[in-house]
Amino acid sequence: MKKFLAAALLAATSPLAAQTIPSPEQIGALRDSAMDGDHYAWDITEGLTTEVGQRLAGTEAETRGRDWAVKKLTAMGFSNVRVEPFDMPVWTRGAESATILAPFPQKMVVAALGNSASTGPAGVTGEIVAFDSVDALRAAPDSAVKGKIVFIDHQMMPTQSGIGYGQFGAPRRQGPTVASKKGALAIVVRSIGTDHHRNPHAGVMTFNDGATPIPAGALSIPDAEQMARILKRGKPVTMHLVLVSQNIGTRQSGNVIAEVPGRDPSLPPILVGGHLDSWDLGTGAIDDASGVAIAAAAAKRIMDAGRPLRTIRIVWFGAEEVGLFGGLDYRAKHGKEPHYALLESDFGADRIWKVDSKLGDARKPEAEAIGNALAPLGIVTGSFTEAEGSDIGPMLADGLPGVGLSQDGTRYFDYHHTPDDTLDKIDPAQLRQNVAAWTAVLAVLSGGIEEPKRSKRR
Ligand SMILES: [Zn+2]
Known about the structure:
By secondary structure, this protein is α/β, with parallel strands linked by helices. It has helices at 2-13, 24-37, 40-51, 60-75, 134-139, 142-145, 164-168, 170-173, 175-181, 221-232, 285-305, 325-334, 364-374, 393-398, 412-415, 428-445, and strands spanning 79-92, 96-102, 106-108, 110-112, 124-131, 149-152, 186-190, 216-219, 238-243, 246-260, 270-275, 307-308, 312-317, 341-344, 352-358, 380-381, 402-407, 449-450. The protein has an eight-stranded mixed sheet, sandwiched between helices. Strands 1-10-13-11-14 form a five-stranded mixed sheet, sandwiched between helices. α13 links the parallel β15 (352-358) and β16. The protein starts with a helix and ends in an 8-residue tail after the last strand. It binds zinc ion. Residues 275, 287-288, 320, 346 line the site of zinc ion.
């Protein structure tokens, strides 16, 4: 038994034999120069949001995004720049409006949720039946819902970690299925957000358990609060809803991949990523142009410093917003191959405040070195047993190792999936702090960076 354990331990640690963690001085210098002067991440974020704009998955806009990405990553000097295409069903937004007909006629601001059925151009008219949670909707008798437009309210508050998005996202994610099963005509939810601007928040939902698709939209938060006040007056409320959404069939999306080749190509790569697609209402600056920018900028800064032992693989995932299609395609093609660590940035570009990792017991020294390298940026070390990320989530769940850098999410859900997700929401100084943190993590994981040999004079 003892012998077996020793052998297992040796097997688990032997890949580390070839590996050295760069000195704290070298890591600190890379971190601090990113903090002082990184411009790569801003260039990518500004370029992608300006020259491409919104990048709804599977549409020609996302295709232009991939073309832009290939050109940009090639121009930055990365190797093996390529697109791995995949097919996916594509949904698009059409004309949309919500009007209260009675008791107090007025217009509201609405956006269709991804995969919403169409009302047709003429729209539908129905009485509102209101609930304050999906559970309350579930508990209602079908007869209370049948033929009506369901409205679900909730009280999501801003938090640093963004933890509220799980619980308070339920009206959007599950509400449409539950409403459909009870025979509802349509559903509108209070936007899953924390702002008080008259901007609806888009987002995906799916009809599960054989539920027939029905029209499903999100009201802006001021309009949802207005709806609650109108309902409190106790009179029946009638809404005319127009959501001319369309399923346009199967189209192509793809993951854009680029690499910093390691000195030892036989070693598993470090994957750094974000997602290239966005919702269609803004220009996808915080979600997720800044994420793909942070990942590529950090990789570029390592490449500028020299050659890492391990390959750094940049993946700009396609079609994340509408169902993690890019992450699942990458997993299907490469998820069985060993990876040294997975990292993804998909929570805006405000200051990183925490690092979690899931590298395994044998790599605790690396996890601790990461914590030490990030402490000067005010980043606290969290868990050694978990990491998260959207596209990489399924592969982390499969058991692949990863590192998670948590941005401050306090204002993230003010802009998330709204027309307000635009470049002006990116704070360049906080963006540089993100790049500094990512660069430091990549330096620790790199296995050592060999500075380029000075070329001899001819
Ligand atoms: Zn995102």
